[in-house]
Amino acid sequence: MNDEKMKKIIHYQVVLDDAAKERVITRGKSLLEQQQLKRHSFFDLLGIVLRFIPVSVWVKQLGWFAVILLYIQSVKFDLVYGREFSVLMGGLTILVLFSLLLLLDELFKSFNFGTWELEQTLKYSLDEQFLAKILIFGLFELGVVLALSLICQNFLMLIFWKVALYLLVPLNLFTIVVLSLLVNWESNGFRTSLWVVSGIAITVVGGTLIFSRLYEASMSVWFVCYLVTSLILGGIIFKCIDRTERVAL
Hints:
Layout: H1 3-11, H2 18-38, H3 42-52, H4 55-80, H5 85-107, H6 109-112, H7 116-120, H8 126-155, H9 160-182, H10 190-211, H11 219-248
Helix pairs in contact: 3-8, 4-5, 4-8, 5-8, 5-9, 5-10, 8-9, 8-11, 9-10, 9-11
């Protein structure tokens, strides 16, 4: 670079345009805010919701799963002595329903304690948070049912998919009854209402399974019941999401 070019560079004056500079800064801030809002996915939401679920919830589930395993161990000897299958399977179903009840209590915890306002400050909407919790707990409960079905197949010599249907249909019915009653319930005393309604639903479902001959029905009937109850449950879940939004407002 020669001296002439250096002199031109030194004496070159940049014309400042404050208005244009402000427009660039404003536009840059807007783009950064938009990109920050878009930097999220449902998997990120699942990770956030998981971190906010207390460890005690999973400890309770593990403890209750151990209780269910002890019951299956006792059932192994009862089957040898010829006890009715409906009584044994009905008892197992009741234990699984109580496991689901513990998760429902956690699912509605924010509603119980009126903390929807706090959760609204997050960048995820309330319906996204509710769906994430339902997905996490639903997958967990499905895993429990499949694990128990596999255990029953190995220890009780029962068919895997039969046990799965025998557990999934009552789970769907129980969830339908509880959510359909609580979706229009007033917020006052919600947690007490949840346990009362759930206790009645467990008693009715368990009693029906134990004292009726539903297990003698063909598996095609059980499969159709599973599909129908799953569709009904899906509709009620979306109604619950709408309720959470109305409560927050």
